[in-house]
Write a structure and sequence with these properties.
3 helices; 59 residues; elongated; two-stranded antiparallel sheet; 2 strands
Length: 59
């Protein structure tokens, strides 16, 4: 019984794919080509939040 449940549960598609936008705001930014990345690499190559790019004023 457990084996059948595991086999059936493993064949489903994920509910939220990784490449799908997370919010309506991300969708809007992608459509307007004003998307700001969420992370950027630091001087050592480690990912960090891209706060400077996201918080800078848009003129």
């Amino acid at each position: 019984m457990l084996a059948i449940a595991l086999l059936l549960g493993g064949c489903q598609k994920p509910l939220f794919p990784r490449n799908a936008p997370r919010t309506q705001f991300e969708t809007y930014d992608l459509m307007r080509r004003r998307y700001q990345p969420l992370e950027e690499p630091d001087v050592f190559g480690n990912p960090q939040p891209a706060l400077r790019a996201r918080l800078s004023p848009d003129y």
